[in-house]
Amino acid sequence: MEAWKTELDAIVGARHGGKTDHVLPALRALDARHPHTPEIAAEIAFTHVSRGEDEAAVVAYDRALALGLPSPAEQANALAGRAACLLRLGRAEDAAAGLERARAQFPENAEFAAYLAVALKRAGRADEACALLLDTLLDLSEDVGLSAHQRTLRHLLRG
Fold it and tell me: What ranges in the chain are assigned the alpha helix state H?
């Protein structure tokens, strides 16, 4: 295990009960020593979110994603976190654009459809949001009644 990973785990482990005052400076110091480590940038983003600093979190998420988070799960979590920050900042169109890209990259991740529906609604595109939610519900539901009526519901949605 790389030395930065052990230190990152220790810093993140100290982030309990919303107490993050000491975490951010420690993460920044670690980042200064290992500036090309996407996992550190992602933890900086998560810490900013926990502190209600969405603008700073978006910057950190963008950096973590640009550096190349190593796993699809980490990439997806960063994209979802970034979108949530943009939504809280009132930047629904920016969130929607990012979520469209995230859905293309991770078509199996239904959370992006849900976030996108919120973004579309907030952007004044309620009909698109509703259609997306219904499509997602029909795609994911195992309900017998919905399955039996899926074809008709999809036709009505498109018509």
Answer: 3-13, 23-33, 38-50, 54-67, 72-88, 92-105, 111-122, 126-140, 144-158
pLDDT single digits (tens) 60-115 = 999 999 999 999 999 999 999 999 999 999 999 999 999 999 999 999 999 999 99
- CA 41-43-46 angle, to 5 degrees, is 115
In angstroms, the CA 111 to CA 7 distance is: 31
pLDDT at 106: 98
Q: Is the pTM of this model over 0.85?
A: yes
- Per residue in 4-23, pLDDT (tens digit) is 999 999 898 877 766 678 89
- Residues 8-31, buried b or exposed e (16+ Cβ, 10 A)? beebbeebeeeebeebbebbeebb
Rg (C-alpha) for the chain, rounded Å, is 19
Q: Are 115 and 83 in contact (CB under 8 A)?
A: yes
CA distance readout (Å), 129 to 35, 40, 104, 111, 153: 39, 34, 17, 14, 16
130 by Cβ neighbours in 10 Å (0-12 / 13-18 / 19+) ranks as middle
